[in-house]
Write a structure and sequence with these properties.
single chain, 172 residues, alpha+beta, two-stranded antiparallel ribbon, 17% strand, elongated, binds iron/sulfur cluster
Length: 172
């Protein structure tokens, strides 16, 4: 169901809080170490990331019902996300979004979509080997690709092997 003015306002406030906290956390992380990955490309609007939005949470939130229930309640009532699965491997809570129209593959409240939708797939960049959906218009690129490309090009490799390595190592 399309968001009304009240839910739009609540989501805008929540989004601001979330985005501010995330910016600070990422800035602190950048000070400690250089991120391994960055994004290239752009969103093509395929909507694959709307099919089963997942939120990674900490172990306490994942395992303690006292924390998880209010979080799931907030996601359901405010964001329209219904919890369908909990993945212990990635400590992710997986949802079905009630704003997603499976026929048109459109969001009925795109203007007020939550921060995790706006941030995707940047949120994956903290993972050791981020995987995007097939067909996603973004690309994951190694941040030190110039150095890695220089090292590879110093080797006496056939052009096809060189191109394959660059592709596999996410240098292009
Ligand atoms: S999967 Fe990628 S291209 Fe598709 S909508 Fe999401 S961000 Fe955009
Ligand atoms: S709120 Fe909109 S953008 Fe976010 S998952 Fe649902 S349909 Fe997609």
């Amino acid at each position: 169901m399309r968001d009304g003015p009240l839910r739009t306002l609540v989501k805008a406030i929540a989004r601001w809080v979330w985005a501010t906290e995330l910016k600070l956390r990422r800035a602190a992380h950048r000070l400690r170490e250089r991120p391994a990955w960055e994004l290239g490309g752009a969103c093509q609007g395929c909507a694959c990331c709307c099919e089963a939005p997942a939120i990674r949470v900490g172990p306490a939130m994942f395992y303690l019902p006292l924390l998880r229930r209010p979080f799931a309640w907030w996601q359901r009532v405010v964001n329209g996300f219904n919890l369908v699965e909990a993945d212990p491997e990635t400590l992710s809570l997986v949802f079905r979004c009630t704003h997603f129209d499976w026929k048109t593959r459109r969001c009925d409240s795109y203007h007020s979509r939550p921060a995790i939708c706006r941030d995707y797939p940047r949120t994956l960049l903290g993972q050791p080997w981020p995987e995007l959906f097939d067909g996603c218009g973004f690309r994951v690129l190694a941040t030190d690709r110039a150095r890695q490309i220089a090292i590879l090009e110093e080797q006496d490799l056939p052009p096809q092997t060189l191109a394959e390595l660059k592709d596999r190592m996410r240098l292009l």
